[in-house]
Amino acid sequence: MIVAAAVAAVLAALLHGYIFVLESLRWEDPRTRRVFGTTAETAAVTRSLAFNQGFYNLFLAVVTLVGVLLLGPVPDAGVALVAAGTGSMLAAALVLLLSDRSKARAALTQGVLPALALVVLVVGLLV
């Protein structure tokens, strides 16, 4: 079960790494604007906000990946970091959903893998 949790956590981290690229490196690119449904004008005005938010996503991904790497040699630290990283990803997805119901698809995209990782991790620790 811990291996399955690690796989889900890595996938969640990769997704959040991709979101970092979109928000921090490619925010004003037309393809990125289509993904987020923004205009060129809105993207220009919100560039610094997106840049900062992208780094939050990157940091969550890094914490999660470090946790996965530590699951073998230092299991308690690994579990703590995986739970903190994926828990924060899930919490952010819930905030997105609760703040703007029109963003439900984005919230599900961001939240399903972290939720799966957390559930499987907890089950794996209990059995």
Automatic annotation (TrEMBL):
Q: Does the keyword Membrane apply?
A: yes
Q: Please name the Pfam families in this protein's record.
A: DUF1304
TM annotation in the entry: 54-72, 79-98, 104-126
- Write the record's keywords in alphabetical order, separated by commas: Membrane, Transmembrane, Transmembrane helix
- Matching InterPro entries: DUF1304
For the keyword Transmembrane helix, the answer is yes
Q: What is this protein called?
A: Membrane protein
Species lineage: Bacteria, Bacillati, Actinomycetota, Actinomycetes, Propionibacteriales
